[in-house]
UniProtKB/TrEMBL annotation:
<feature type="region of interest" description="Disordered">
    <location>
        <begin position="31"/>
        <end position="70"/>
    </location>
</feature>
<dbReference type="InterPro" id="IPR025749">
    <property type="entry name" value="Sphingomyelin_synth-like_dom"/>
</dbReference>
<feature type="transmembrane region" description="Helical">
    <location>
        <begin position="94"/>
        <end position="114"/>
    </location>
</feature>
<dbReference type="GO" id="GO:0005886">
    <property type="term" value="C:plasma membrane"/>
</dbReference>
<keyword id="KW-0812">Transmembrane</keyword>
<comment type="similarity">
    <text>Belongs to the sphingomyelin synthase family.</text>
</comment>
<keyword id="KW-0808">Transferase</keyword>
<feature type="transmembrane region" description="Helical">
    <location>
        <begin position="294"/>
        <end position="316"/>
    </location>
</feature>
<dbReference type="InterPro" id="IPR045221">
    <property type="entry name" value="Sphingomyelin_synth-like"/>
</dbReference>
<feature type="compositionally biased region" description="Polar residues">
    <location>
        <begin position="31"/>
        <end position="41"/>
    </location>
</feature>
<dbReference type="GO" id="GO:0006686">
    <property type="term" value="P:sphingomyelin biosynthetic process"/>
</dbReference>
<keyword id="KW-0472">Membrane</keyword>
<feature type="domain" description="Sphingomyelin synthase-like">
    <location>
        <begin position="236"/>
        <end position="308"/>
    </location>
</feature>
<keyword id="KW-0443">Lipid metabolism</keyword>
<dbReference type="GO" id="GO:0046513">
    <property type="term" value="P:ceramide biosynthetic process"/>
</dbReference>
<protein>
    <recommendedName>
        <fullName>Sphingomyelin synthase-like domain-containing protein</fullName>
    </recommendedName>
</protein>
<dbReference type="GO" id="GO:0033188">
    <property type="term" value="F:sphingomyelin synthase activity"/>
</dbReference>
Length: 370
């Protein structure tokens, strides 16, 4: 028994010394109180051998080290304000409109130059075409196509006007049309095709196409918005690719993208109107079939690529894995879309604020209960 007590006595003394050392350790600390320093010193015991061997690294925040690990993740605060998520940025919209006007003018200048380079009808027949060779030309079909163009375009204008985020939608439409007209002005100039119709009227060529003549032709085309139905489009050679198809297809895409999805019957109506307008261009022999196919491909690829980038914020960063970022217009896209946060909601309102007197509630008349 004495042996056991002698053996356990040193351990008992050690336990008593440890108990007296940590008897003042509280369950938790409040490091914001004046007593925090005393609690920290009571807990740390810098003179202890354990503390000397396991010195904790200094903390930036001044808090003592513990077994808990704090991980700070910088996350963007949620943007609840609709104006912050979808800013109007009217200045950017006006800049996009300037780009559209510039590229439309370049396209008209390109057509004015091409008109004098078109092969003579008397010596050059229309190129072989799988559709045109089997369908007799109908001049009235071009008027039908342009009437449908006016219907689709005016519908787009009405839709954008009453869209809540109309400035963003307008900006996107202006940019898409700018790119399409820029590419069209180059393709029609580099490759000049013979006139596809034997009945379409072409203005006489100019022996010396001076700068004044070219500018006069360009403004004449602009005054008629490039349509033949008003008699302003009397120049030939704008074949690759079809401007009628670009307008019809882009109009349908805008209506289907920015109108409520439950309006799918209306979407089908505009799809049929657009397809009818494209077919009427071919029936009138206003374009070769290849012109229509290239226009459809260029318009749909550009529209879907642009909106894929705009609706996915991760694609706004250009890196080695984002091959869409290699598009030549990508830097312009980042400038115009960098402040838009995600897909645009399908919301609508009146662009003009109503007078307060119209919305003010009339006072209630006294009833029998009063």
């Amino acid at each position: 028994m004495k042996v056991i007590l002698k053996t356990a006595w040193p351990s008992t003394k050690i336990i008593q010394r440890l108990s007296s050392t940590y008897s003042e350790v509280p369950d938790s600390y409040d490091y914001n109180t004046p007593n925090a320093a005393s609690h920290q010193s009571a807990y740390a015991h810098p003179g202890s051998p354990y503390h000397q061997q396991n010195q904790p690294p200094p903390s930036d925040t001044g808090s003592p080290s513990s077994d808990a690990v704090m991980i700070k993740i910088d996350t963007p605060s949620p943007l609840r304000d609709d104006q912050q998520r979808y800013p109007k940025e009217i200045g950017k919209t006006l800049l996009a409109l300037v780009f559209l006007a510039l590229n439309f003018f370049i396209a008209t200048v390109s057509l004015s130059l091409v008109h004098d380079r078109v092969p003579d009808r008397d010596t050059h027949e229309p190129l072989p075409d799988a559709f045109l060779d089997r369908v007799q030309a109908q001049d009235w079909a071009l008027d039908v196509s342009e009437i449908l163009i006016m219907v689709v375009v005016n519908s787009c204008v009405l839709l954008i006007t009453f869209h809540k985020h109309r400035f963003i939608v307008m900006r996107r439409v202006f940019l898409l049309l700018s790119v399409l007209y820029m590419m069209r002005s180059m393709t029609m100039y580099v490759t000049v095709l013979p006139v596809s119709s034997r009945t379409y009227y072409c203005s006489p060529k100019s022996n010396a196409s001076s700068a004044g003549v070219i500018v006069k032709r360009a403004f004449q085309l602009i005054s008629g918005m490039g349509l033949s139905i008003n008699g302003k489009q009397i120049y030939c050679g704008d074949y690759i690719y079809s401007g009628h198809t670009v307008t019809l297809v882009l109009g349908y895409l805008v209506i289907s993208e920015y109108s409520p999805k439950r309006f799918w019957p209306i979407h089908w109506i505009y799809w049929m109107a657009s397809m009818t307008g494209v077919v009427m261009v071919l029936v009138a022999h206003g374009h070769y079939t290849v012109d229509v196919l290239i226009a459809y491909y260029a318009t749909t690829r550009l529209f879907w690529t642009y909106h894929t980038l705009a609706n996915n914020s991760l694609l706004l960063k250009q890196n080695g894995n984002n091959y869409i970022g290699r598009e030549w217009w990508y830097f312009g896209f980042r400038y115009f879309e960098r402040n838009v946060r995600g897909p645009i909601p399908l919301q609508y309102d009146c662009p003009l604020s109503l007078p307060a007197s119209w919305t003010k509630k009339s006072p209630k008349l006294p009833g029998r209960e009063s």
